[in-house]
Specification:
The structure is a homodecamer of 94-residue chains. Chain A is α+β, with helices and mostly antiparallel strands and 94 residues long. Chain A has one domain: 2-Layer Sandwich (Alpha-Beta Plaits), CATH 3.30.70. Chain A has two helices and four strands; from the N terminus they run E-H-E-E-H-E. Chain A has helices at 17-36, 61-69, and strands at residues 2-9, 40-46, 51-57, 77-86. Chain A has a four-stranded antiparallel sheet with strand order 2-3-1-4. In chain A, a hairpin with a 4-residue loop joins strand 2 (40-46) and strand 3 (51-57). Chain A starts with a strand and ends in an 8-residue tail after the last strand. The mean pLDDT of chain A is 96. The F-H interface holds F 3, 5, 12, 14, 61-62, 64-65, 68-69, 75, 79-81 and H 11, 13, 45-49.
Chain lengths: 94, 94, 94, 94, 94, 94, 94, 94, 94, 94
């Protein structure tokens, strides 16, 4: 089932450049794994902001929570979750 | 280029059942055309609300405006547009 | 899976007393059916407001949307949906 | 009587991993005690957030305040309290 | 137990002067009854607004809901309820 | 004349336990003095929050400001002031 | 004592041009009276909006409420009241 | 031309008492100069808050910005600017 | 001097298609006049919304108010005005 | 294509005067380059605030993101992006 997830990242001042670079690499690696597993269906950057719009396809909210809370940058994120479903006007099967 | 579009529909009390049914059919027909043209990439229902989350792939904001403002239910919609771009952690080419 | 649903009802001025009484009865009848099916787990009144806090246990967001959008008072409701999952400190199995 | 309590936890940067782990364990222990006493009726995680939705059954608002303000993580919480009561459409006795 | 209740009244355009005058008289009559019963402890006008700040002393949220929802102007009110309790710095016994 | 004052207290992380305990005692002492002088008419705890709802009876806004800004915890407070007056439905003389 | 009052006017569609013109004239007449009495100290238009920023000098909040609620356009206004006092950096005596 | 300026001051924890006292004195000195020049027409304290409501009479927005950004406490202020003009019901010439 | 003006248009249901078409033509005519006079410097459509972002160059806020309040669609607009000035990093003279 | 960009700058307390001065110079240098390239069409200061209103003319949202995220002060900015297009009442070709 599909969930829209909006993530905004706020890095505190005391996170050093090295630490942030490493966290970002880990984040991207984890994001790619989840995309290859077709759990993280879409991942787009919001233009001009340290934020993304994502679509997840998970078995239930618990799996979604497990995935999000294990992301390397999770503790610096503000997260909004919205449950989605098939739209009668859509030609996608969902 | 990609835009996230959030549409919330509010039908006024004086729109009759027949009129609404007809408008919805026209809306879905138009939505399907635009999906087949690959302009309207994704269309999901927000669970529990008369609202959708959509992703459009258009040539520019002007084309997006032309498409949205010509939707049969446009005059009853509250619309939010967000410009998207490739995310460094995404494996989609966008 | 569990979803928190907050429903606020706003009855337009032109809905007559008779019509509203009938709609409310239909709403309560439908609510009881869904509670007996264990789809609508909890239904509480928010003190002082024409609103409720509800917990639904459904198979997916699509089923939740189908249930909510078929409620007799749905067209007069403002609805907020929040996906829930097991809390590590809870002794309920969920 | 029933109260809905929404708790969002924000851990300051200077709380160490050890301290947080210990506080969380104390929090869960206290939560379980209160659940076994049937004071804390329900405790659900909000998917994707360090937050919960809880239902308390207490004798009065003073008891609710005493319970909440004594939680080990209370000083890091943002709390919203909503008074609930029986809903005419509910089949629960409350 | 004490609850703060903020009531804002919004009279629709089609309520005639006579009807409003009658409703207001009924509202004041009911308010006085409830004050004499010591259920409605305080009732203050918010300066410059068609709104009030009230303190109720009721047995439980259900009684509060019953009282508020039976007020003659209730259907035109926007209501906010806040649960109160004894403050350690207060010399009132509450 | 009466003013509603909502005070929310936010203690910064670097205020030590000893300092806070001392400030709270001074705050309560000052609050009691002002209550005995009938300047601070009511002081209630908002259930679940480090906040209060207060009613002051002062000669003018300047006196209110002088009182509030001299409270020991004032520099950690977020304060909202609302001017009140007699309500036509109230049986209190104000 | 001084109060800042922000008034925003929203004229419903069914108020005719004649009625509105008459109400505006009555409003201005009343405003001038109150200015000559030095109750309504300042009255400025907010550029681009059907709104004003006003400063009143009244004996108490009750007088302010009486003045505002008797304005010819009051029933179409959204009003915000803020209590003011002498600023230590001001050279006005207030 | 007139501008309403709302300034809210938030002093960070690490500004010492001596520094703040000095800054406040400089602020008041500067405020008095600007009042004597009739640039800063009015300066009122918002009761209960470290905030003020001010009216400036400047040649243009650039002069207003220059004045505000050179205030000793400017870096700790949250500022809201509103353009004002003559109100048809006012007896002031502006 | 420059002002940013955000205008959002909300046409009530009872404005007929003919009336709206006529008002829009008058609005565009007036907008062109003001652009040719270099009062209305820029006028852009916000993509997806019945709204615009405009830059005005006027002598003072009073002239801005006079211009805006005389627009044919003004009574259906929600207007936000922001005073602008030269930015130190800009190569425009303003 | 055009985008409105609102940037608000918040400099943390621990950025020294020297560092800030250097960053501002770099920011202005970069802003001038981009203006000369006609990518950054307009740059105005919001009067009274450490904020600007900007208009960018870029090839796509990705270019906009690249430009904004490479600004020297970007990490201290809160950014809002709005897609613009030709307005039917405008005499500019866009």
């Amino acid at each position: 089932m599909l969930f829209q997830v909006d993530m905004t990242v706020r890095i505190p001042r005391d996170v050093g450049g090295e630490e942030l670079k490493k966290l970002s690499e880990q984040e991207h690696e984890r994001a790619k794994e989840l995309q290859l597993q077709r759990k993280w269906l879409h991942l787009w950057r919001v233009a001009g902001r340290y934020a993304n719009l994502s679509i997840f396809d998970v078995d239930n909210p618990a799996e979604l929570h497990e995935i999000l809370s294990s992301l390397p940058l999770y503790r610096f994120m503000e997260v909004e979750v919205t449950a989605l479903c098939h739209h009668p006007g859509s030609i996608e099967s969902v």
